[in-house]
Design a protein that fits this description.
The complex is a heterotrimer of chains A (164), B (434) and C (168). With 434 residues, chain B is mainly alpha-helical. Chain B is 48% helix and 10% strand. Chain B has 19 helices and 8 strands. The two termini of chain B are 31 Å apart. The relative contact order of chain B is 0.17. Classes of the chains: A alpha/beta (164), B mainly alpha (434), C alpha/beta (168). The interface between A and B is large, with 39 and 46 residues.
Chain lengths: 164, 434, 168
């Protein structure tokens, strides 16, 4: 692990305590799994710390792990312009309680990413100022990126104009 | 506008149509007029009220199928609300149902102004997941061609922006240069537009001498043509005045909203992944990161213009340093074998069969790899569960993130400034909508 | 009279037909419905190298009221289909539709939940063009085929759409 990232992860663990559930590393990508209650605190600290600030929120996206417990995961990517390193956070939630605090208060740029995650997977972000669908029409009922949604869609879910 | 949206953030004030009452003194006057039974009474004078204007999704200046709802006070934009999704093609869902090789052709259509760059970005993420690396010659050729793709993308940004503010000739000149790049791709890659050139662990085919000669001929004549085109607009009073001080965004705001690429560098933040997080062979090459401090449309235009010169520099160095050797990594279970060997050797036939039918089966895990494309940071996040196709593939497309700054940039400007601002942001809806 | 020798023998309606069809054929004004990748090749078709004006079609009108042929260039999603149809309905008759590229013709490589698998589901199409995207030359091929069709059509039943042309 990169020493800079190692230090960041260490401090995150100290600050958040048990909220840091797991730290994974794969091909130099460090993923810190945190509890959803601590996500806003974690990103605020990442942005504001002195040693290695992460001012750029690159992406937020949700994925469907298709498991009974903790079905949905939301990933966050942050990039540090000072140290040129990247850190990934991950939050896991259950299907029947898929609500995560929004980080738009810390990174306004996360607004559209969260809208996209809501549109595609159906994870809700509490405190988001404008949580609407990003791509699909408002009247669309399904969440297309869920694993149980077929690739070719459900017939009749999206209307077409008449040929006439 | 409800109080909720007002208090939360300026970025999200949506143009909700409500009754806009005139100021109090005028209201009492109107009430008096109503009591006097005055028949000439009118509450909805268009000059006194806001107006909601729809722009797009089929509009010549929205660079594709972007739709913007504008709330206007006279000709001044009070707020703007972009709506996306008119070109949402479900790339990420398609990726989950295809092998890693099959998805290469889909990356062409993401940012269709620079298909080769997307191929490279995607394949680098897959190679990171697999833990393999292409040989140096392949890396140099990838770098070289992706810089050519960057020039072709900037040429469109350059020409279209000028066309939007009224200089039609430049677009034709830029397309003339682009055709030359297309010819090079035709020669080197085999397709002029949708290249699909990269393969896992290498590239489709090696570059030949005539291809190198064509690239040399192109970079010989390009600076002169660029100067010619630049002289047409850069010192043009109309162009200058329309672009200067429009769409100003400070460095802090640009970072907070997530701008990347030339748009961020136009605000003075020297973030360039080619230098800061080097991939391929960029760490062995000498080039400058262009920044401008003003943060307006003109600054973004100049960043793109100067970046084309830097790209030429990179291409020149790549041509000089181009090493000899194979263009395919020696990883028989991951890299597609050559066609002529499939027909003559048993091992290669088996590997080809396995790779085509079942995929490359990377280990379980997830990686994120980002490159600096012409639009900004283009990243692919791949989650693998050890199967031949990705479990989840997320595309971090720069145009999507750059468009997010649009409401902020448009606010307070005149209606006609939209074109200069949108042109300087250079979004491509293919990747913004995914 | 000299006019008769120029237009050939026959009834006056036929001659008027021929004259109008000839006029229509040589002044097809396209409405570029540029949606995605194909739109870039459509722009390339107008560049100095390919020069679409050789065929009398350089007058690209973004207003549907002023155009005769809609070139649907790119992937049509369900969300966009309503917009495409609305613009088609705004075009004045006679009007023709060219489906440029694989996506507009059949959904192409995008077999997914949000892409309409062929615009002929909601639009009458005259020419289908193969390619992803078609080279500008192939677009010209399609437009020349359309010109031939327009030349043969009559004023009264120009909507004779029994067989769309497929250009590959």
């Amino acid at each position: 692990m990169n020493p800079v990232i190692e230090k960041v992860v260490h401090t995150l663990r100290e600050r958040l305590g048990d909220a840091v559930e797991e730290v994974r590393e794969f091909r130099d990508d460090v993923i810190v799994v945190v509890d959803r209650s601590a996500i806003v605190e974690a990103v605020t600290w990442l942005r504001d710390n002195e040693e290695c600030p992460f001012p750029l929120c690159e992406d937020v996206f949700a994925l469907d792990a298709y498991e009974r417990i903790k079905r949905f995961e939301v990933n966050y990517h942050f990039f540090s312009i000072k140290e040129h390193v990247r850190i990934h956070l991950k939050v896991r939630v259950d299907e029947d309680d898929a609500v995560i605090p929004s980080i738009t208060g810390v990174f306004p740029g996360a607004g559209w990413y969260e809208r996209e995650s809501y549109d595609m997977i159906g994870v809700e972000f509490s405190g988001h100022p404008d949580l609407r669908r990003m791509y699909m029409p408002e009247e669309f009922e399904y969440f297309p990126m869920r694993k149980d949604y077929p690739l070719m869609g459900i017939p009749g879910a999206l209307p077409l104009p008449k040929r006439g | 506008m409800s109080d909720k949206t007002k208090s939360s953030s300026d970025l999200y004030d949506t143009p909700v149509i409500t009754t806009h009452l005139p100021p109090r003194e005028k209201r009492t006057k109107m009430l008096q007029a109503l009591l006097d039974m005055d028949p000439d009474l009118s509450f909805d004078d268009p000059l006194e009220n806001d107006m909601v204007l729809n722009m797009g999704p089929s509009h010549p200046a929205t660079h594709g199928v972007l739709r913007i709802l504008l709330r206007l006070d006279g000709e001044t934009i009070v707020s703007a609300l972009p709506e996306l999704g008119y070109l949402h093609r479900g790339y990420e869902k398609i990726a989950e149902n295809e092998t890693y090789h099959e998805f290469i052709t889909h990356t062409d259509r993401l940012d269709y102004l620079q298909p080769l760059h997307n191929n490279v970005a995607y394949i680098l993420a897959v190679e990171k997941l697999l833990g393999i690396e292409a040989p140096p010659r392949a890396q140099y050729i990838r770098t070289l061609l992706s810089e050519l793709a960057r020039i072709s993308s900037h040429l469109v940004a350059f020409g279209v922006m000028a066309m939007d503010v009224g200089a039609m000739t430049l677009l034709l000149w830029c397309f003339r240069e682009r055709e030359k790049i297309h010819d090079i791709f035709d020669l080197v890659v085999g397709a002029r537009f949708t290249t699909s050139f990269t393969r896992i662990g290498g590239i489709a085919q090696d570059i030949q001498d005539d291809g190198i000669a064509a690239i040399r001929a192109f970079i010989e004549q390009f600076p002169e043509r660029q100067l010619e085109a630049e002289r047409l607009v850069s010192r043009n009073r109309i162009f200058y005045d329309r672009c200067r001080n429009t769409g100003v965004i400070s460095a802090e705001d640009a970072l907070a909203i997530g701008l990347t690429g030339p748009n961020l560098r136009g605000s003075g933040v020297p973030l360039d992944l080619r230098r800061d997080n080097p991939y391929m062979v960029y760490d062995q090459l000498d080039f400058d990161v262009i920044t401008e401090s003003e943060g307006d449309s003109l600054a973004r235009y100049y960043v793109r213009l100067k970046e084309m010169e830097e790209s030429l520099k990179i291409i020149r160095q790549c041509l000089e340093k181009l090493p000899e050797g194979s263009v395919h990594a020696h990883e028989p279970k991951k890299v597609l074998p050559r066609k002529e060997r499939i027909y003559t050797r048993m091992e290669e036939l088996i590997h080809d069969f396995m790779i085509v039918n079942f995929g490359v089966n990377p280990p379980e895990g997830e990686v994120y790899h980002a490159v600096e494309s012409a639009k900004g940071q283009l990243g692919f996040h791949i989650v693998s569960r050890g199967e031949g196709h990705p479990w989840r593939l997320k595309i971090r497309s720069p145009s999507f993130c750059n468009l997010q700054a649009l409401p902020q940039l448009l606010k307070g400007h005149l209606l006609s400034d939209i074109l200069a601002i949108l042109g300087s942001l250079d979004p491509v809806m293919g990747e913004a909508d995914k | 009279m000299g006019l008769e020798s120029a237009l050939g023998e026959g009834y006056i309606t036929t001659q008027l037909d021929a004259l109008i069809a000839w006029g229509r054929k040589n002044s097809l004004w396209p409405m570029p419905m540029g949606l995605s990748c194909c739109a870039i090749e459509l722009m390339s078709a107008g560049d100095p190298r390919h020069d679409i004006s050789r065929f009398g079609m350089e007058v690209m009108r973004f207003s549907p009221r002023q155009s005769d042929v809609m070139i649907v260039a790119g992937t049509v999603t369900y969300k966009m289909a309503h917009v495409v149809r609305k613009i088609y309905d705004q075009m004045a008759e006679p009007r023709w539709v060219v489906a440029m590229g694989a996506c507009a013709s059949s959904g192409g490589m995008f077999r997914s939940y949000s892409v309409v698998q062929g615009i002929d589901q909601f639009l009458p199409v005259d020419v289908f063009t193969a390619g992803c995207p078609p080279r500008p030359e192939n677009l010209f091929n399609a437009l020349i085929e359309l010109q031939k069709k327009v030349e043969k059509s009559s004023v009264l039943d120009y909507r004779d759409r029994k067989e769309p042309i497929i250009v590959s």
